[in-house]
């Protein structure tokens, strides 16, 4: 297996991937959409199994699909959602917001944000009552993971160092276009249905990026995670609304 893909999968999932990682951490960036595809197809498989067992019980599909997503990613990006909510709305100036985001404790804004995001994803999954809709789930994971690369390339890192610094400071235009190409290739099975999903995902990702720039002067590791989760949720809703 390609070292860059191994690096991406080990970072973005709990999957026990054999092999040697790339020599440079940043070499995994072009493969983030591929890691998203692996996660997406696994979650899709769980949802299809739930649909086969109980086709009229959308709640079961939603619970199992959401649980699989959280388990496979160890809730990695959800932490970013909570930290961003606490920092962005818990501090009145940039330095204080960054301090709050580094605090390992979760505040009221973080709890509210997590509840709303999880409820949103559950609601979208619960509405996926037919196979044609369920099989589009991988696109949501592909585009949202591409969004991490997009944010890293388009925005600055707001601290001198910290979590996510290597990704944001090392992301280049080459990484972005390679990730875009990988993502488009992996989205081909979805056909033309993938086109509006890419548009919706990129729009939400950039919205999070500009919010991060406004609140803290750029995108930290937490903002990368929050952008990924919010893009994924947006795409799940877009899949349902477009069905």
From TrEMBL:
UniProt keyword Repressor, yes or no: no
Residues spanning the membrane: 32-54, 104-122, 134-155, 176-203, 223-242
Protein keywords: Cell membrane, Cobalamin biosynthesis, Magnesium, Membrane, Transferase, Transmembrane, Transmembrane helix
Protein species of origin: Coraliomargarita algicola
Reaction it catalyzes: alpha-ribazole 5'-phosphate + adenosylcob(III)inamide-GDP = adenosylcob(III)alamin 5'-phosphate + GMP + H(+); alpha-ribazole + adenosylcob(III)inamide-GDP = adenosylcob(III)alamin + GMP + H(+)
Record-listed E.C. numbers: 2.7.8.26
Name the record gives this protein: Adenosylcobinamide-GDP ribazoletransferase
Pfam family, one: CobS
Enzyme type, top EC level: transferase
Subcellular location as annotated: Cell membrane
Pathway named in the protein's UniProt entry: Cofactor biosynthesis; adenosylcobalamin biosynthesis; adenosylcobalamin from cob(II)yrinate a,c-diamide: step 7/7
InterPro entries per the UniProt record, alphabetical: CobS
Classification lineage: Bacteria, Pseudomonadati, Verrucomicrobiota, Opitutia, Puniceicoccales
GO molecular function per UniProt: adenosylcobinamide-GDP ribazoletransferase activity
Mode of membrane association: Multi-pass membrane protein
Cofactor(s) recorded in Swiss-Prot or TrEMBL: Mg(2+)
The family this protein is said to belong to: Belongs to the CobS family.
Keyword Transferase set for record: yes
Biological role stated in the UniProt entry: Joins adenosylcobinamide-GDP and alpha-ribazole to generate adenosylcobalamin (Ado-cobalamin). Also synthesizes adenosylcobalamin 5'-phosphate from adenosylcobinamide-GDP and alpha-ribazole 5'-phosphate.
PANTHER family: ADENOSYLCOBINAMIDE-GDP RIBAZOLETRANSFERASE (PTHR34148)
